[in-house]
Design goal:
The structure holds two protein chains of two kinds. By secondary structure, chain A is of the alpha/beta class. Chain A has five helices and five strands, in the order βαβαβαβαβα. In chain A, helix 1 packs across helix 5. By secondary structure, chain B is of the alpha+beta class. Chain B has five domains: about 160 residues, GAF domain (Beta-Lactamase), CATH 3.30.450; about 100 residues, PAS domain (Beta-Lactamase); about 80 residues, Beta-Lactamase; about 120 residues, Helix Hairpins (Orthogonal Bundle); about 150 residues, Histidine kinase-like ATPase, C-terminal domain (Heat Shock Protein 90, 2-Layer Sandwich), CATH 3.30.565.10. Helices cover about 45% and strands about 20% of the residues of chain B. Chain B contains 16 helices and 22 strands. In chain B, the strands form five sheets. Chain B has a five-stranded antiparallel β-sheet with strand order 2-1-5-4-3. In chain B, helix 15 packs antiparallel against helix 16. Chain B starts with 13 loop residues before the first helix and ends in a 6-residue tail after the last strand. Classes of the chains: A alpha/beta, B alpha+beta. Chains A and B meet through helix 1 of A and helix 11 and helix 12 of B. Chain B: This is histidine kinase.
């Protein structure tokens, strides 16, 4: 686990209504050298995203109030958040969900159960492809 | 036939020679031998140079020379001629009835030397002479012997000549009689040339010089046929030819009318006075007889044939009647039974040893039949009568419902000659009708039942239809439930596996070996649970029809490369030699790439799991004959007993299903493979034996068809 001391730690917004999972991923991301913000539903996710402008968003799709697809669609339709990559997380392994997620604007798709280290690997991979283009 | 008497010898005295002549004359029964004897005797005893004995013919003054000596035939014949008018010396002698001497030549007396002729009338004085003796003498004195002979022979000739005259007259009569015979009669030589023929025979066999050409030809033909018949008659009879008549049929032609005639020829041979053999033939006209015989024969033959035919007809009729199972009775016009066939006898004939009951039943049948017949005869002009009779079986007493059909048999003149009655047992027919009625009843009942059943069935169908819908809904609900369940399983499992993973990575600090071992067990059991959940989810999706086919064109080699790459970590960990072999000319495939890959992945990971050492080979081939691809995974693992080979494809089955089984896995992998293969239109097969490794093969068509 190496972190660069010269660059600020990337901020990851973890959105999941299931507390155990949300906190688990948050703890491991922090353990892995990320800053972490948490939201427990879609509305909260939108608020936090507009407010904090995270570097990447981990979005569970089954969410109360506003679900993950709708939240992702709104983020991608807003200039403030359009460029923030969204990694969709889902426990629904039924086919078609990944297509639907991509249609909503998700940049990546991870099926639960997903081990924390595998998720961190995916976050790093996405950030690496986006690294240079990210403003500020 | 008279034969010449031996001549008296010269030494005889006059008396003896007279006596000999007298005896000779007594023995004569004809005039000529008598005359010859006299001429001979005169030549010997009276010194006559030439002499002749002439007799008067009965009619006319004609002389006939019976015998002569020293005279030629012509001289004799000349003596017999009587010229017209007087002047014939012999006629004068006869008229005077006294001997006379002619000294000089006096025609027609022959001139002999210088002597004269004595003419001596024959017969006693006072009786008209029957003839005269003519002698040439040298002197005019009448020898005593001559006078004696004339007196002796006169009466004898007078007795014999008239008989001969009658005979001559008789010949004419005979001729007339023969001519009067209707049958042809003729005397022929042996070659059949006619000598004497009566009128009828002449009509057939003789053609005069003025006959027509047609008649001549017909006669010629007849002569030919007749001669041949005669010849065959004489030759055929051989030794018997001299005895009796011979009969032959001779077909002749009537020369006048040209009709064919048939004659019966009777012929016999006779010897004529001149010693020649002649044939007397009588032809009897049997033309009509022949025709009659022929006609009679024909009639007889026809009669016999008719009789034969009638007899065989009768036999045939008998056989026919007896072969008819229905009773038949032939009655005479008065109703009496003439004949009946066997079945009829059973009903109407009194049984020989029958019981009293049987007899009374037969009587009852008779009475019934009689009244039926009476009805027919009262029925006027109708030729046929039909009726229902209730008869009784004499043997059993059972009632026999009979239909009787009686027909009148009419003679040639329309008179009634008999009645034929044919019975037909209607028991069976009535029984059939009764059965038919019953069948109809039962049938209508059945129909009613069928209607009820049909209604019930319709109701059941409706129920089933609803149930099917409910089942479908239930199935969908079940699938949804399982999908949800899997989601609900995964969420906590995600946390379990995640935290375990974090702890094992030392996120919460270093772990003791015991803690690490225990966490590792949590981790592996959690992973197994996850695998089970995933596979249940797959099966659920397949059964719920939520795993559609995604058909595309792809190549097998690339697919195998991907599979090997995905399993590379496991292969690397194992000590197995894993290889792929590609058959020649593997074509591009049109199928569901994801499902093919899933099956191959599953088979290969199974092989890796159950093989400890040796090798695993993946071999892809194309079978052009069936347009099928095969991907076979062969390992050198533990192998599978044939008894278990079918079982392992069932859900949750492994060969070792005990809780402490040695191998991991859910037991759903092969079950899923089989389902996926079926979706592809293919199948998964297994060849294996314990300790000999296993080969699992996926067979699937090169071009999958959308279900």
């Amino acid at each position: 686990m190496t972190t660069s001391s010269t660059t600020p730690k990337p901020l990851v917004l973890v959105v999941d209504d299931y507390q155990d999972a949300r906190e688990m991923y948050a703890e491991y991301l922090e353990f892995s050298g990320f800053r972490v913000a948490e939201a427990k539903n879609g509305q909260e996710a939108l608020d936090k995203a507009f407010e904090l402008r995270p570097d990447i968003i981990l979005m569970d799709l089954s969410l109360p109030i506003i679900d993950g697809w709708e939240a992702t669609r709104r983020l991608k339709n807003d200039d403030r958040t359009r460029t923030i990559p969204v990694v969709a997380l889902t426990g629904h392994a039924m086919t078609g969900q990944s297509d639907e997620a991509k249609g909503a604007g998700c940049d990546s798709f991870v099926t639960k159960p997903c081990l924390p280290d595998a998720l961190v690997d995916e976050v790093r991979r996405i950030l690496a492809t986006r690294g240079g283009s990210r403003p500020g | 036939m008279p034969s010449p008497v031996p001549l008296p010898t010269p030494p005889l005295t006059t008396a003896e020679s007279r006596l000999a002549l007298a005896e000779q004359l007594l023995a004569c029964d004809a005039a000529r031998p008598c005359a010859e004897a006299v001429v001979e005797w005169l030549a010997h005893h009276a010194g006559a140079g030439a002499c002749a004995c002439l007799v008067r013919e009965e009619h006319g003054e004609q002389l006939r020379c019976l015998a002569s000596r020293g005279l030629s035939e012509a001289q004799c014949a000349a003596l017999a001629l009587v010229p017209e008018g007087d002047g014939h010396p012999l006629v004068e002698v006869l008229a005077l009835a006294a001997p006379r001497y002619f000294p000089g030549p006096r025609p027609p007396l022959p001139v002999l030397g210088t002597g004269g002729w004595f003419a001596v009338p024959l017969g006693r004085p006072g009786v008209p002479p029957v003839g005269l003796l003519l002698l040439s003498t040298s002197g005019a004195a009448l020898p005593k012997e001559v006078a004696w002979v004339a007196a002796r022979v006169g009466p004898v000739l007078a007795r014999l000549v008239p008989a001969e005259s009658r005979e001559v007259a008789g010949r004419g009569l005979l001729r007339r009689i023969i001519d009067a015979v209707a049958d042809p009669v003729l005397l022929t030589d042996q070659a059949g040339r006619p000598r004497i023929a009566n009128t009828r025979a002449e009509a057939l066999l003789v053609a005069g010089p003025d006959a027509s050409e047609g008649r001549r030809r017909a006669v010629e033909l007849n002569q030919h046929v007749f001669a041949r018949a005669l010849a065959s008659a004489s030759s055929a009879d051989g030794p018997a030819r001299s005895t009796g008549f011979r009969r032959r049929e001779v077909p002749l032609v009537d020369p006048a009318e040209g009709m064919d005639l048939l004659f019966e020829l009777l012929s016999t041979q006779v010897v004529e006075p001149d010693g020649q053999v002649a044939v007397v033939s009588v032809l009897r006209n049997v033309t009509d007889l022949g025709r009659a015989t022929q006609a009679l024969g024909e009639s007889y033959r026809r009669l016999r044939a008719t009789e034969r035919e009638a007899r065989s007809e009768r036999h045939r009729l008998d056989r026919v009647l007896d072969s008819v199972a229905d009773p038949i009775i032939l009655s005479d016009p008065s109703g009496g039974t003439v004949m009946m066939n066997d079945p009829a006898e059973k009903l109407f004939a009194l049984p020989l040893d029958g019981s009293q009951a049987a007899r009374s039943r037969v009587h009852s049948n008779d009475a019934t039949f009689s009244s039926f017949l009476a009805n027919l005869m009262d029925g006027g002009g109708s030729l046929r009568w039909r009726g229902q009779l209730s008869l009784v079986d004499p043997a059993t007493g059972a009632t026999l419902p009979m239909e009787a059909v009686a027909s009148k048999v009419l003679g040639d003149n329309g008179e009634l000659t008999g009645i034929v009655t044919l019975f037909h047992d209607r028991t069976e027919a009535l029984e059939k009708a009764r059965l038919l009625e019953r069948v109809k009843d039962v049938s209508s009942q059945l129909e009613a039942r069928v209607q009820v059943a049909t209604a019930e069935l319709a109701e059941q169908n409706e129920k089933l239809r609803r149930q099917a819908i409910q089942l479908e809904q239930a199935s969908a609900a079940k699938s949804q439930f399982l999908a949800n369940m899997s989601h609900e399983f995964r969420t906590p499992l995600n946390a379990i596996l995640g935290y375990t993973n974090m702890l094992l990575q030392g996120v919460s600090g270093e772990l003791t070996p015991s803690q690490k071992r225990n966490l590792t067990r949590i981790d592996s059991n959690g992973r197994h649970l996850l695998e089970v959940i995933n596979e249940i989810l797959d099966i659920t999706r397949i059964e719920a029809g939520r795993m559609p086919l995604h058909l595309s064109d792809f190549a097998i080699p690339e697919l195998l490369q991907e599979v090997m790459a995905e399993l590379d970590p496991i292969i690397a960990r194992s000590k197995l030699a894993v290889s792929t072999e590609l058959g020649a000319r593997l074509p591009a495939v049109h199928s569901d790439r994801q499902k093919v890959k899933q099956v191959v992945l599953n088979l290969l990971s199974n092989a890796l799991k159950f093989t400890h050492e040796g090798s695993v080979t993946v071999r892809a081939e194309y079978v052009p004959a069936t347009s099928t691809l095969t991907i076979a995974v062969t390992d050198t693992g533990i192998g599978i007993d044939p008894a278990h080979q079918e079982k392992i494809f069932e859900d949750f089955q492994q060969v070792d299903s005990s809780p402490t089984r040695a191998y991991g896995g859910t037991g759903l992998g092969l079950s899923i493979c089989r389902r996926l293969a079926t979706m592809l239109g293919g199948r998964v097969t297994l060849q294996s034996a314990p300790g000999q490794g296993s080969t699992f093969t996926l067979h699937f068509p090169r071009r999958a068809r959308r279900a």
